[in-house]
Design a protein that fits this description.
- By secondary structure, the protein is α+β, with helices and mostly antiparallel strands.
- The chain folds into three domains: 3-49, Transferase, Pyrimidine Nucleoside Phosphorylase, Chain C (Transferase, Pyrimidine Nucleoside Phosphorylase, Chain A, domain 3, Up-down Bundle); 79-325 and 427-439, Nucleoside phosphorylase/phosphoribosyltransferase catalytic domain (Pyrimidine Nucleoside Phosphorylase, Chain A, domain 2), CATH 3.40.1030.10; 331-419, Pyrimidine nucleoside phosphorylase-like, C-terminal domain (Aldehyde Oxidoreductase, domain 3).
- It is built from 17 helices and 14 strands.
- Helix 5 crosses helix 14 (304-315) and helix 16 (351-363) runs antiparallel to helix 17.
- The longest helix has 17 residues, at 211-227.
Amino acid sequence: MNPVLMIEKKRDGGALSAEEISGLVRGYVSGSIPDYQMSAFLMAVVLRGMDDTEMRAMTEAFVASGDVLDLSSIPGIKVDKHSTGGVGDKVSLILAPLVASAGVPVPMMAGRGLGHTGGTLDKLESIPGFATRLSEDAFVKQVASLGCAIMGQTDRLVPADRKIYSLRDVTGTVPSLPLICSSILSKKKAEGADALVLDVKLGRGAFFKKREETVRLAKSLVSLGNGLGIQTVALLTAMDQPLGRAVGNWLEVRESVDVLRGGGPKDVRDVTLALGAEMLVLGGKTSTHREGIVVLRKLLQSGAAYDTFIRMVKAQGGDVSVIENPENVPPAAFGVTVESPSDGWVAGLDAFAVGKISVGLGAGRVRKEDAVDPFAGIVLQKKTGDLVRKSETLAVIATNKEAVVEESKIRMIGAYQFSPKPADVQSLIDCRIDAKGESAFPFSPA
């Protein structure tokens, strides 16, 4: 196949056949189609989109590029969760061991940072020794014995998505509905999940800023997932401002540990409980969301979820001592306070801006080959709705790159909006979407 003809066809608004899409994906994985041609195709998709038939063909081509795991030997309904990408979104680190400790197997294939958003794999790899590249046998055995495992794509599991995912990150081709849907659902199909809960981000820090676009994304994901034989439900959750107070890999691990120990920021706990309740219902462990939230809250308070997390870290080669004593981990070389320029109320905190600043500090990638600094990031002391006094600390930035400190301080102040009056805070859970359509989440996690 001639990739130029397919690029031109999509550029001009044409629909590609399943054979054309499959050939393009196979060619890129084999190396016969170079990065620059795939980049051009991806940009054409961003600009022109794909119809449902093309999107399913792309997803199936991704799955067919590698192996598909068989988890049928593991008893129970295997349920995964996936986020469309947010800032400060460390929920997967908490949710996998939490839901596993409730008796629902959680096979989780996660990704790396993408654009302004953090990646679960980058966060876990800030734990010394933690291996996210597991063999297929090791992954299946760990889910069977421990109840959960989190890994990235291997050379044999969805290699097409792994290559294209990293390319999208550095070519401005992240915010594309068909590319996001194909990426997410191909991983879930390949990992052998029976059911899936999607955390679709809504707000300034999401890839789609408008609510109607976000609802369309969620409905497309739910439809595609169910069409692939995966029982799929989505929650739209808030991303106008970062989730929690920590943004950056090791900083978010520390905050996740706080939640697993029964503490941590309320917004992180509440989103985790809502998503976890969906997973328990899909997994057949509870009949209602209310019951699921009660079960999960007890597992956090009892320490059972934390114990499962410790076992997962140990099973995947991580240094458990840094989890048990995180205060002993040396911080980044430069920790700088960002002070408020005035009195007032925080009326807004731009999650997208904070994510971009965090990337500049070293917590993400600007180029595909960039290394991620596990200790770079931001700790937010003030968020939307908080009262602040002039010269009071808004945030603390951490980096090992001295040259970016002053600019990052200025940009952080610019990420805040202030008001003389208290401001409304975005509702954490906007709605729930399943195969029947859109509805309210049936029970508040608060």
